[in-house]
Amino acid sequence: MGTRQSRGWVEKIFETWFAACAYLSVAVTAGIVLTLVWESWPFFQQVGLVEFLFEKEWTPLFSDAKFGIQPLLLGTLMTTLIACAVAVPLGILIAATLSEFMSSRMRQVIKPVIELLAGIPSVIFGYFALIVVTPFLQKWIPSLPGFSLLAAGLTMSFMILPLIVSLSEDALQAVPSSLREASQALGGTVWETTWKVILPSASSGIISACILGVSRAIGETMVVAIAAGQQPHWTLDPTEPAATMTAFMVQVALGDLPHGSLGYQTVFVVGLTLLLMTLAFNFLALQFRSRIRKSF
After folding, report:
1. FRET label pair with 3: which of 20, 54, 55, 217, CA 20 to 30 Å apart?
2. Selection from 213, 268, 279, 264 nearest residue 245 by Cα
3. Collapsing DSSP states into helix, strand and coil, what is residue 154?
4. What is the pTM of this model?
5. How many helices (H) and strands (E) does the chain have?
6. Residues 240 and 160 sit within 8 Å (Cβ to Cβ)
């Protein structure tokens, strides 16, 4: 009887601890959101929402200040799209190769090597983009400047690739082996089984991996700050330099701006915009994942 009571107390302690951790994460998130909203509110009392969303110039630190978020928003989206266009299909392909076409011994060697990329600091990736990626691209595009969205986006794809590969491979490994055996028993090749059975069955986990990879790409700071440039520029050309939202936040945080000034408040406004954009993307991606899951 005493043993059961002690087990019950231990379970209650762990339940309370886990619940406290969950509530703490919610409280921290709510605190971040409230801080951003509180610091951004004075900005929108002086700058209209229409100007903020539709103006194509962002020069908050100039004497003739302009407060259009579009250049920073476009730079962030451009680098993210470039990174995802490379990392998502390549990551899924590598994960499928590791899971379905390689032996377990080879997988145990190659997968940890790929995951080592996730441990490299982002500042190193930034200088890698500046010293290696940009000169390599300039051989093919001679007019490419020293800073460009293309170089930053390609380098970011190497950063998010290990995350997509690792989580996608785990999702593929979680598919029951009975599905593989049933497909092959019906005459399906390994490629047909992978493409028509395994990948659709693991689509929920693969989409989750892509969501995490894209979220990291959106919030990446050092690579874009070093390789993309820090001059806000409205452009759809990936070979031109431009600033992203995170790069602007780094630039302003290093300056000497008085607390409460309009230039100081732009850091929180850009941070709030970045947070809302990430939340919106995650919400849409989760809705898409739920539809995919229902279809299968």
Report:
1. 20
2. 268
3. helix
4. 0.84
5. 14, 0
6. no
Question: Exposed, middle or buried, 269 (CB in 10 Å: 0-12/13-18/19+)?
Answer: buried
CATH number of 70-295: 1.10.3720.10
DSSP state of 23: H
Q: What is the mean pLDDT of residues 44-64?
A: 82
How distant, in Å, are the alpha carbons of 46, 77, 107, 190 from that of 168? Answer: 46, 24, 14, 18
In whole angstroms, what is the distance from residue 216 CA to residue 223 CA?
Answer: 12
Tokens found for residue 154: 């390609």
Percent of the chain with pLDDT over 70: 93
Residues 6+ apart with CB under 8 A from 91: 160, 161, 164, 165, 168, 209, 210, 213
d(CA 276, CA 119): 27
Q: What is the mean pLDDT of the chain?
A: 83
Mean pLDDT of 217-236: 83
**Mean pLDDT in residue range 259-280:** 83
The token pair that represents 239 in the structure block: 């070979």
165-178, pLDDT tens digit by residue? 988 888 888 888 88
What is the pLDDT, as a whole number, of residue 16? Answer: 86
DSSP SS3 for 259: coil
Contact criterion met (CB below 8 Å) for 250 and 225:
yes
